[in-house]
Design a protein that fits this description.
Blueprint (H helix, E strand, L loop, with lengths): L2 H4 L1 E5 L4 H12 L4 E5 L2 H12 L4 E5 L7 H9 L4 E6 L10 H19 L3 E10 L2 H6 L4 H5 L17 H24 L4 E7 L5 H9 L1 H8 L9 H11 L10 E5 L14
Helix pairs in contact: 2-11, 5-8, 9-10
Length: 269
């Protein structure tokens, strides 16, 4: 399949971490890119590097902002969309509960819903969740899944004692969104999948390990006993956007180096 037939690939959080790695992998695979991030300097540098070798556009802005959709549409410029890799989000130390829920869940829902009508049959939307969503278990699933529109997301604040809980609930919400909406996406021939990384060796991941000893314990007790590299996780997203993953939809892919297979470390509950 040629890049022209694939359509454009939208990648959020593309200026660093998993988003930057995803952009590199998708570009190498021949995808025209629309890169999105709040970091203007890094995003422009990345876009310039890719533009030298192919088709690339970019959107500088907050994915939760009201004007983001229009800016994204301008960058897409009427072209069909073949892939969405949504990496942008906030970790628990970056904002309070309301903001974490707004960016990680409400904005994710709005973005996926906005892009869907532009996606071509065979396209894939890959939304980044987190292994934290698996740690939550299913106890709150009914209450989280009932929040089926972005406008209802603030209702979840009542469940959050702190931003760490908000982060976990937001990522569980992404996983449940994928399961709930896969049939709607499938009716257009589009696949919808979430990816749940464990701890990743990125600035955000290192910040979380520094602020929360439990995160370091998860890494130390995992089967591979190390954090992931961003490219290792983004390679899964790139695969999910490829024809090789054409029968994968409505599910979450856990990419955590075996952290959860070993169980939660003492003191983490």
């Amino acid at each position: 399949m040629t890049a022209e037939k694939k359509g454009v690939a939208i990648i959020t959080g593309a200026a660093s971490g998993m988003g930057e790695a995803a952009a590199q992998l998708m570009h190498a695979d021949g995808w025209p890119l629309v890169l999105c991030d709040m970091n203007e300097e890094r995003l422009r540098a990345s876009a310039a590097a890719y533009a030298a070798a192919g088709d690339v556009g970019f959107v500088i802005g907050d994915i939760s902002a009201a004007e983001f959709a229009a800016a994204l549409d301008a960058a897409i410029d009427g072209r069909p969309v073949g892939a969405l890799v949504h990496c942008a989000g906030l970790s628990p130390t970056m904002a309070g509960s309301e903001r974490v829920l707004e960016v990680n869940l409400a904005a994710t829902m709005r973005l996926a819903n906005h892009v869907l009508p532009k996606m071509v049959p065979g396209a894939a939307a890959v939304l980044f969740a987190s292994s934290a969503g698996h740690m939550l278990g299913t106890t709150l699933d009914a209450r989280i899944d009932a929040v089926d529109t972005p406008e209802k997301v603030p209702e979840l604040v009542a469940l959050c004692s702190n931003s760490g809980v908000a982060y976990t609930i937001s990522k569980r919400g992404v996983m449940l969104f994928v399961k709930r909406e896969a049939n709607r996406f499938g009716a257009r021939g589009v696949r919808l999948v979430s990816v749940s990384p464990g701890i990743i060796d990125t600035p955000m991941g290192r910040q979380e390990m520094t602020s929360s000893p439990i995160m370091k314990s998860l890494v130390d007790n995992s089967s591979l006993a190390r954090p992931a590299q961003a490219r290792e996780v983004s390679a899964v997203a790139a695969f999910l956007c490829s024809p090789a993953a054409s029968f994968i939809t409505g599910t979450d892919i856990l990419v955590d180096g075996g952290s959860l297979s070993r169980g939660m470390p003492a003191g983490s509950q």
